[in-house]
Amino acid sequence: MTRPRHRPGQHPPLVVEIQGPNACFTRPEFKTERLSYPVMTPSAAKGVLEAIFWKPEFAYQVQAIEVLTPIRWFSVRRNEVDSTLSLDWVRTAMSDHQHRFDAEQHRDQRNMVCLRDVAYRIHAQMRMRPHADAPEAKYRDQFRRRIQRGACFSQPFLGTREFSASFGKATTRGPIDHTEDLGVMLHSIDYTDGRESYRWFHAQLEDGVLAVPPQGAELPTASAGVRTGGRG
Question: At what angle do helices 42-52 and 136-149 cross, to 10 degrees?
């Protein structure tokens, strides 16, 4: 599979390379143990782009993700809290300042299957929103300048915040020679009509390139409580 090409009349995609020693893009099927997808997900890629440069006048649409290093796995056990705070608990704590949440009593060791020594090349377009008051070229130039300077709004991470990442301009290295059916993967989250709906797509890694369709589909059983592959 070749690198994505832009359609006539469309800007060339914005391209950035991201890398780090560890990554975990959690599959939604596993509720307790964390098992990563073999590659970066579109939601994680969008999170990286927004960490580098974000404005309310536009949204990123990820078109493709190239895998630049061989897929390597490792596992680790880590401490996680086995429950979340309920609304009733918060109300009680607000009225009784002596009320405390004892994290030690709710701590549990869970296995995490992660990726090691990762590098990706992200291709994305900007989609301007109706209230944008400047041409797209202005925002694209700002994005490119931030890439050149290594500037970001917040530290980019690779699926989970403890796995920080570095980024830079695109290089000439090609994607890995690997093809794999990745199954169902989160495409995007839609917040229109005052609700949160999840859009999915069938992901296929072809010759080291994950192509992302323009739109995803809502699954009948999709739940807002599932893990989404790396925005967390």
Answer: 90
Half-sphere exposure of 45 toward its Cβ, with a 13 Å CA cutoff? 30
Instruction: Give the number of other CB atoms < 10 A from CB of residue 90.
Output: 12
pLDDT single digits (tens) 169-203: 999 999 999 999 999 999 988 877 777 888 999 99
pLDDT at 75: 93
Strand blocks (E) in 70-146: 73-81, 107-128
Amino acid residing at 156: P
Q: What residues are paired with 190 via a beta bridge?
A: 197
The class (CATH top level) of 14-79+111-211 is: alpha beta
Contact call for residues 128 and 138 (beta carbons, < 8 A): no
Q: pLDDT, tens digit, for every residue of 100-111? A: 655 555 456 778
